[in-house]
Amino acid sequence: MKLVVVSAGLSVPSSTRLLGDRLAAAAVRGTAADVQVVELRDLAVEIAHNFTNGFPGPGLSDAIDAVTSADGLIVVTPVFSASYSGLFKSFFDVLTVGDKDALAGKPVLIAATGGSGRHSLVLEHALRPLFAYLRAVVVPTGVYAASEDWGAEGLAERIERAAGELAGLMGAVPVAAAAPVRAGGGFEVIPFEQQLEALRP
């Protein structure tokens, strides 16, 4: 099982990366899943060159391979001008220009950071439509963290809920944890990827 975090944070240290790390830790807790982080800040030049010459550099090529081979994604962006960052969008443009189905059916947890809670709707107005267009399966709970949320009540609970939803879609949650057996009989939880495979012609 492989989980990839795509972080578009620009600063060092980055609250965007911190949020991605916390979400990943919660999603793979108690499993043998591998976690890989793609820092878009380090790929900015290669992303720009890819637009002009059509060829990904070695770092960008590795990042594309990581994302397309992942069993699940956590994508985190800082908020700029009430939307995702240009670097974030550019990466997913590059990713899908060669393969429009690169994210089709892939479980994705969306998250964002910003200086004010007033931008929390970026999850629903920008990120969710983007990944719905790319035909990814976006988990119901997105996580937005404003500056005042760090250390405050509520953020940890949102992280756990969203991470649990992603783990369930990835099939990383044991059946007993994902769906407790009811008295008088139980039911089987079928991992999302298996359900999706059954629908394919």
Report low-confidence residues grouped into runs of 5 or more. Answer: 174-187
Count of extended strands? 6
User: What sequence of helices (H) and strands (E) makes up the elements?
Assistant: EHEHHEHEHEEHHH
Looking at CATH, the homologous superfamily is Flavodoxin domain
What is the class in the CATH system? Alpha Beta
Radius of gyration from CA coordinates: 17 Å
Give the CA-CA distance, first to last residue. Answer: 25 Å
Q: From the coordinates shown, what is the CATH architecture?
A: 3-Layer(aba) Sandwich
Binned, the helix content reads 40-55%
Helix and strand content put the structural class at alpha/beta
Largest sheet: 6 strands, parallel
Q: What is the arithmetic mean of pLDDT?
A: 88
- Number of domains as seen in the coordinates: 1
- Output the CATH topology: Rossmann fold
Strand content: 15-25%
Tally of helical segments: 8
* Rough outline: globular
What would you say this structure looks like, in words?
The chain is α/β, with parallel strands linked by helices. The chain has a single domain (2-199), classed as Flavodoxin domain (Rossmann fold, 3-Layer(aba) Sandwich). The protein has 8 helices and 6 strands; from the N terminus they run E-H-E-H-H-E-H-E-H-E-E-H-H-H. The protein has helices at residues 15-28, 44-53, 58-69, 86-97, 122-133, 155-170, 175-178, 192-199; strands at 2-7, 34-39, 72-78, 107-114, 137-138, 143-146. Strands 1, 2, 3, 4, 5 and 6 form a 6-stranded parallel β-sheet that branches. Strand 1 (2-7), helix 1 and strand 2 form a beta-alpha-beta unit. The longest helix is centred in the C-terminal third of the chain and has 16 residues, at 155-170. It starts with a strand and ends with a helix. The model is unreliable at 174-187 (pLDDT under 50).
